[in-house]
Inverse folding.
């Protein structure tokens, strides 16, 4: 059989799959090739070559940033957590004052002034009037209840404003939330250290620095506060520690100082005023400028209306009837008096007190207004416009209790130069009553006669001194009453020399003139310097019968909340200086000064008064001091720089001020008689009186032959008795 008939060998492989196997689904393709395909979808060519470095850089930066951010977040959380643990309890930071306060009560026990940092008591955000709470939020931080302590929007806006105004981004406007402001108020938890900061102001200035590092600490502290305290607790701290001008720390103190009520009782206009103070407490304080305060309050009301806290009608009503100050705040009474009383009290319980102190004083607000109105009346109606002349007034009871004090023409001040206490000026003829007081106590009489004639004395080292009368004329023999009435210089010098300058000096010092007194014969003419307070107190000694007094203003001092006084005083009477008989004669002589002498312009209709004018050399100082049966009033007038007064003597404008003051002081009081000698007729010089140093008057009580002898014997007797 041939091979050609065999089947030929196929040239290709047999089919691998049968029909059955072909019907099976195919295995899915691997995913790895697809990823590779995706990678191959990256831009290629020129575009890929350009973008590749940027893609790589983005990956590196993003990886770095999210790792750094995570670390920073962890550090921030740790810092906030640590600060959280250091925050005190809310109750411990409500009163953050480093100093205490002084509340001053008048003679009737009513508050008339405050000094130091006043804290009215702890309050909460929910205890104040709703209008007050809403006004503060609307003005200071309208998103307060929605943010976490910081307001990025507010910070960005503030930085933009600061840069536009040429400052560094973080200096000027802060965009601070109430939480951030509260953090500043508690000084980021740093307590006051008297060794590091000399005053509370330095401490506060340091707390309010606006460096970038400080702002960072403030933000951290604010976040911790938001975590530690509730929103209302933060607001409560703010309400208690914010400074609102006028010495008010917190809204409770401000409510009491400005409106005489509690913070829970303030109405809408009053709430707007207080909320407006937060931006500039001192400048906008209603006691400094009520108009500026009202203008700012109008802005606060507008913000409240825009944020839905009040209606348009409520806004209009509040603007139509703005807040008015309480009587105490409006009067701002007794600034000069308060400064003086604070200086007389113990410094650790007055000027530098760290406690809350209550002082009861001798102050009389009615008499203070009387003195201020009298001053204003004279300077408005009788002093030329533009004059820089100053004046001071002291009103005192006969026991030395100071009832009113005006230390200058500007009356509504505190901390100003007090001319009634701090100015030491020559007294001029206002000193002469003490010359005659010494003479009366040593045997002279109101009707003793002394020659008004030229007199010259040799002064060691200075040569001859010859005093002149104001009129440059001489009247011959004069009674001591007429000599004082007409303020005759030669007679005063002769009497002083005869009774002895040391005796005159001793009498003046015993009456309370503690300033250095002149050693020479010019002592009799008031060459020495003294304060108005000293001189008024010395005249009070004459009124009460020759018994010295010490001017005083503080009667009781106690800690706030305590009923037991730490110290107290009733009356300023001291030792007797001259006899009651001498005081009665001297009072009569001074009475004649007002009825017939240099003080006639001070005469009061229907009321007895005694006093003495005084004018110094070249009229640099002019005085009038006098008294009725109830009060002593002293007046000084002059220039601070010792410029001579033009056309002014003690019997002129000072007497006018004295009269206007006494008219107001005595209003409503009975017209009581002065405690003085009342001769049947005024003393006069007998026609046959000898022309000696001391002569007999008519009528008189002594023999003309032994009057000088009596004086000498009285002097010797006092010396032997040790007086």
């Amino acid at each position: 059989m041939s091979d050609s008939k065999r089947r030929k060998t196929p040239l290709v492989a047999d089919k691998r799959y049968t029909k059955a196997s072909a019907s099976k689904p195919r295995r899915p393709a691997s995913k790895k090739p697809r990823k590779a395909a995706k990678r191959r979808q990256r831009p290629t060519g020129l575009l890929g070559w350009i973008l590749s470095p940027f893609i790589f850089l983005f990956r590196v930066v993003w990886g770095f940033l999210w790792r750094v951010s995570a670390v920073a977040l962890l550090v921030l959380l740790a810092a906030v957590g640590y600060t959280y643990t250091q925050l005190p309890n809310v109750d411990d930071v409500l009163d953050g004052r480093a100093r205490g306060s002084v509340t001053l009560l008048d003679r009737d026990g009513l508050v008339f002034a405050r000094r130091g940092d006043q804290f009215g008591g702890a309050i909460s955000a929910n205890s104040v009037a709703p209008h007050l709470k809403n006004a503060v939020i609307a003005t200071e931080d309208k998103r307060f209840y929605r943010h976490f302590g910081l307001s990025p929007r507010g910070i960005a806006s503030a930085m933009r404003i600061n840069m536009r105004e040429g400052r560094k981004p973080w200096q000027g406007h802060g965009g601070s939330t109430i939480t951030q402001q509260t953090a500043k108020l508690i000084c980021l938890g740093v307590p006051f250290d008297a060794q590091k900061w000399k005053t509370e102001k330095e401490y506060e200035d340091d707390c309010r620095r606006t460096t970038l590092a400080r702002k960072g600490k403030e933000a951290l502290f604010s976040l911790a506060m938001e975590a530690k305290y509730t929103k209302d607790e933060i607001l409560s701290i703010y309400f208690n520690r914010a400074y609102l001008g006028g010495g008010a720390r917190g809204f409770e103190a401000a409510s009491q100082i400005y409106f005489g009520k509690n913070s829970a009782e303030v109405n809408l206009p009053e709430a707007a005023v207080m909320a407006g103070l937060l931006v500039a407490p001192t400048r906008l304080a209603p006691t400094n400028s009520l108009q500026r305060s009202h203008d700012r309050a109008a802005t606060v009301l507008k913000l409240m209306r825009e944020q839905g806290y009040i209606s348009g009608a409520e806004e209009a009503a509040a603007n139509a009837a703005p807040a008015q100050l309480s009587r105490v705040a409006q009067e701002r009474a007794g600034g000069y008096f308060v400064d003086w009383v604070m200086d007389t009290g113990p410094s650790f319980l007055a000027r530098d007190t760290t406690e809350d102190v209550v002082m009861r004083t001798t102050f009389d607000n009615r008499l203070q207004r009387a003195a201020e109105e009298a001053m204003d009346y004279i300077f408005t109606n009788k002093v030329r416009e533009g004059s820089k002349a100053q004046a001071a007034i002291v009103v005192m009871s006969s026991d030395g209790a100071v009832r009113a004090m005006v230390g200058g023409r500007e009356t509504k001040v505190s901390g100003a130069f007090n001319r009634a206490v701090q100015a030491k000026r020559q007294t001029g003829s206002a000193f002469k009553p003490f010359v005659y007081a010494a003479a009366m106590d040593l045997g002279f009489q109101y009707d003793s006669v002394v020659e008004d004639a030229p007199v010259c004395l040799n002064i060691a080292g200075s040569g001859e001194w010859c005093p002149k009368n104001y009129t440059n004329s001489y009247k011959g023999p004069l009674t001591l009453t007429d000599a004082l009435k007409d303020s005759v210089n030669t007679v005063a010098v002769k009497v002083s020399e005869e009774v002895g300058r040391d005796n005159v000096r001793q009498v003046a010092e015993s009456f309370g003139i503690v300033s250095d007194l002149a050693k020479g014969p010019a002592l009799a003419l008031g060459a020495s310097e003294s304060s108005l307070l000293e001189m008024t107190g010395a005249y009070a000694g004459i009124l009460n019968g020759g018994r010295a007094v010490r001017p005083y203003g503080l009667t009781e001092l106690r800690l706030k909340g305590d009923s037991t006084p730490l110290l107290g005083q009733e009356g300023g009477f001291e030792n007797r200086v001259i006899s009651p008989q001498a005081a009665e004669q001297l009072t009569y002589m001074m009475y004649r000064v007002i009825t017939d002498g240099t003080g006639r312009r001070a005469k009061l209709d229907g009321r007895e008064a005694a006093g003495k004018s005084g004018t110094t050399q070249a009229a640099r100082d002019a005085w009038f001091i006098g008294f009725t049966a109830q009060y002593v009033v002293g007046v000084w007038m002059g220039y601070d720089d010792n410029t001579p007064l033009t056309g002014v003597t003690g019997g002129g404008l000072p007497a006018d001020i004295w009269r206007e003051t006494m008219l107001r002081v005595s209003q409503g009081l009975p017209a009581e008689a002065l405690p003085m000698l009342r001769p049947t007729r005024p003393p006069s010089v007998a026609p046959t009186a000898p022309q000696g140093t001391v002569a007999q008057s008519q009528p008189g009580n002594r023999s003309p032959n032994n009057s000088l002898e009596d004086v000498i014997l009285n002097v010797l007797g006092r010396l032997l008795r040790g007086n």
The longest helix spans residues 45-86.
